Hints:
Elements: E1 6-7, H1 8-12, E2 20-24, E3 32-33, E4 35-38, E5 52-56, H2 65-77, E6 82-86, H3 96-104, E7 109-112, H4 118-153, H5 157-168, E8 172-176, E9 182-184, H6 191-197, H7 201-206, E10 217-221, E11 224-233, E12 236-245, H8 248-283, H9 286-291, H10 298-304, E13 317-328, H11 335-355, E14 360-366, E15 369-377, H12 380-405, E16 409-415, H13 425-441, E17 448-450, H14 456-462, H15 466-487, H16 491-500, H17 505-512, H18 516-530, H19 537-554
Parallel strand pairs: 4-5, 5-6, 6-7, 16-17
Antiparallel strand pairs: 1-3, 2-7, 8-9, 8-12, 10-11, 11-12, 13-15, 13-16, 14-15
Helix pairs in contact: 2-3, 4-5, 4-8, 5-8, 8-11, 14-19, 15-19, 16-17, 17-18
Domain PucR C-terminal helix-turn-helix: 491-549
Domain Purine catabolism PurC-like: 10-129
Family: Belongs to the CdaR family.
Amino acid sequence: xxxxxxxxxxxxxxxxxxxxxxxxxxxxxxxxxxxxxxxxxxxxxxxxxxxxxxxxxxxxxxxxxxxxxxxxxxxxxxxxxxxxxxxxxxxxxxxxxxxxxxxxxxxxxxxxxxxxxxxxxxxxxxxxxxxxxxxxxxxxxxxxxxxxxxxxxxxxxxxxxxxxxxxxxxxxxxxxxxxxxxxxxxxxxxxxxxxxxxxxxxxxxxxxxxxxxxxxxxxxxxxxxxxxxxxxxxxxxxxxxxxxxxxxxxxxxxxxxxxxxxxxxxxxxxxxxxxxxxxxxxxxxxxxxxxxxxxxxxxxxxxxxxxxxxxxxxxxxxxxxxxxxxxxxxxxxxxxxxxxxxxxxxxxxxxxxxxxxxxxxxxxxxxxxxxxxxxxxxxxxxxxxxxxxxxxxxxxxxxxxxxxxxxxxxxxxxxxxxxxxxxxxxxxxxxxxxxxxxxxxxxxxxxxxxxxxxxxxxxxxxxxxxxxxxxxxxxxxxxxxxxxxxxxxxxxxxxxxxxxxxxxxxxxxxxxxxxxxxxxxxxxxxxxxxxxxxxxxxxxxxxxxxxxxxxxxxxxxxxxxx
Length: 562
């Protein structure tokens, strides 16, 4: 039961109701009362909210029998709390069919057999409702203050659960993506208790059941509701604090307590992660040791990475090198923002590594550049795929955080190919650096790129002679580029899209948002400039490579971003 909740039964015990009688709905005495209204109109439904208690002189009872019953049905359908009738002003009795309908739906009808002051009744009930809510809010505020003091003295979330249970007298639970789940009191072996212990929290988070993570989630159980409040750190859902509530009304009363507990859990999680980051910075020498060639064997590398030693054919696994950089999105000075981000990102990265059940090492090269090395045991092909999938999820979370929290800064991330040995890390980071450079020059690839998905860009980036690339671009696209300077006909954009659409003129026109005749005119001009046919293998490959080289050399998008 919601402690702030006023029920019909409570109202009947008020001094002003000593001369009132309950004419119908005896089994509805536990109906909650949210507010009181004096209403005399017949079409009442649009003005009634759930749990409203209606006071009336019964003027509507002078209508036809059907109209009288329709009026009461409106109250019942709107889930009003009940009805208070006054006899002696508009009516002399309550029709039996009205009382019978109310009784059938356990809808309380309270009758005063003489005129009463409605103003005194509304003032009395409203004062009672407001006072109860104020008392409950004071208790919730007191809990929040004690919780704040508790988090200054303890670092374990179990202390939060104990205080939450002590104030609410409800079963408390804590589900985490970073550490073992907790409960207070400890769960027993009953069916509902087992369900709480085995709640698939990680799968629920992956399926997006918590939405943006800023509101509570209520799960219907056999004997009540499990109310879960997400624990957010750096915009990432890392855990949830939960309470068992009796019903929706009880859940509403418990919500402020749960919100405070979730905030405390977030503070403790952040403190723990910062502590781990501080410790990790002192211990984490793996990446610089590998890059500077100071690691002599795979066993030494595995030891630095915290992996168990493997011997002979059993020494299998995979490693994935990732380079990250922050850059300004505009000309303004971002020094302070970048400095703050450089403190937060390593903490967030280590948190995300644990969230996605990965293992890895960090190296912060500068305030805007971080290197990340993920590693996993197992068959190299399987371990590599697992690392690629985990890295993609981790980087998507990181990109979302930067978009929401780091205004004015842009994140870029690039990964090399998965490697079977940690000693291959230098080559992997060279690939990541090349992929990062390609990402800067070719915006349409997006802010996250993987070296093994770059295709011909790998080859083009590796060509050391820039003049050779420029000559290749001029040979294949020179006349088009010259024509665009003179006429701005968007021929290069049209050619690029036409090849991307595999020669489909209909799809090309649709994606360029132009009329088909406009496309035909452009295609005729392109034919005059570079000849036909575009889709012959040698011609097509040459044009596509030249377009890619043009994007790579100029760092410009061709037309619209597709």
